[in-house]
Amino acid sequence: PSHEEITQRVKELSLPDFPYSSELHLALPAWVKTLAGLLEQGLMLFIDYGFPEKELYHPERYEGSLRCHYRHHHHDDPFYWPGLQDITAHVNFTAIAKAAYESGLEIAGFSSQAALLLEAGILSLAENFADKRALKTLTLPQEMGELFKAIALTRNYESPILGFQTQDWRYRL
Q1: What is the CA radius of gyration of the chain?
Q2: How far apart are CA 164 and CA 106, in angstroms?
Q3: How many CB atoms lie within 10 A of CB 68?
């Protein structure tokens, strides 16, 4: 993208009027549109940690969401262990929804990972989990349950989608 395109995208975010640092996922819309172009009929399900745009670029998140992980330790310096650490940032689920809509997809659901898994019946599998802590990690609000979100995108798909009936956060997108 050009400097002008980046500047325009940043202006659209209505960031606060004080020093603010964050990530901008410029390739995300094109990636979603590419996937949408391949889908004639069916469902795409994305699960990752992130927020709707207003929450991702909230004034309280003025240092962004970029995080680095190295040997079970996390920090914020992407240059600390180059090539040895994982570098990640939160997903902008509003950008996913907007690109999907512009590509003719239906946003069929948006919820927390916990709601998706619980409604889809993960508790019926609980006795098969060797480590009950793993189940708690996937579903508890202070763990991955609320931090991770799920969005379902469809085209020509009429079947019910488990995981989005009890919690519908599409209004937050």
Answers
A1: 18
A2: 14
A3: 18
What lies within 8 Å, CB to CB, of 156 at 6+ separation is 40, 41, 42
How far, CA to CA in Å, does 17 sit from each of 6, 12, 13, 21, 42?
18, 14, 12, 12, 43
User: What pLDDT digit, counting tens, does each position of 75-132 carry?
Assistant: 999 999 999 999 999 999 999 999 999 999 999 999 999 999 999 988 887 777 667 8
Contact between 85 and 69 under an 8 Å Cβ cutoff? The reply is: yes
* Lookup result for tokens 């079970």: 72
Neighbouring C-alpha atoms within 13 Å toward the C-beta of 135 = 13
The pLDDT value recorded for residue 2 is: 87
What is the structure's pLDDT at 45?
97
